[in-house]
Amino acid sequence: MDFTSPSRSGRGAGDDRRPGPLDRYAAERATGALRGPAGCVYLHRGAVYCVECPTAPGVGARLATAGRLPPECWRHAESAAGAHHRGGQFLLQQGWLTRGELEVCQLSALLDAACFVLAQEAGATSFVRGDAHWLGVIRPVDAAALLAAVARRQAQLDRLEAWAAADGAPVVPIPPEHPGHPNRPPLTGRQRWLLAHADGERTPGELAHALGHSAFLTLLEVRRLAAAGRVRLPPPAALPRRRPGAVPHQRRARDTAADAPVWHLPDPGALETTDPDVALLVRLRTALEENL
Question: Where is the region Disordered (predicted)?
């Protein structure tokens, strides 16, 4: 396991994978921050509880674009987190979010960011023991289960590798009456939503950030739209691939997070839905309610 883009893994969910840094620190039940070129993975006693990556919208951005939590409240929680990293608890104590809302949003953002941070190719990594995220431990995820979920998503993207040119290019819809594609498959609701917001200038990643939507699923749907002749592919000379920016520096402090049960991610394909995010979140919500 190392850090690269999900489109570069070249491996399917069932392929053998060499153990990497995350496997090592998970086996050691380590607590700290594992940083690499694409982002940062935070562990508590070997379980992953936060993944940060500039490519994917974080929890605060998702809550803000959904109109659920103003950005100033999110910033206030960060400043109030303190040395014990209790930003999440502060949000709950203020009544700004319910625990279920925070857990579901945090897990969704974690999985999305992991798709860009966790991959198979080599890359330099560093681990800082005791380093923690200000939000705190909300709902840790088993590292092996997270890697398996990322591999399944990578396999989906790899099947559309022929349309990877759309990844870093502006999303330009092709009019429905375009004569070159008379028998195109019907659009899904997610695809209609993306095309409605595509202005011909923003890339899939920029659309994901503007809409507070999953960066991975936006990338996947744009490739599907390109394969169906619904969006234009750029000429080969116009394929700049945008590198994610630097991850914001996190304060170092000793790990004082409260104990929390480790969540084992369910298989998104187990539900009768083609939307892996919906399947995952419904399963999470159901399990949460059963454990109340």
Answer: 1-23, 236-269
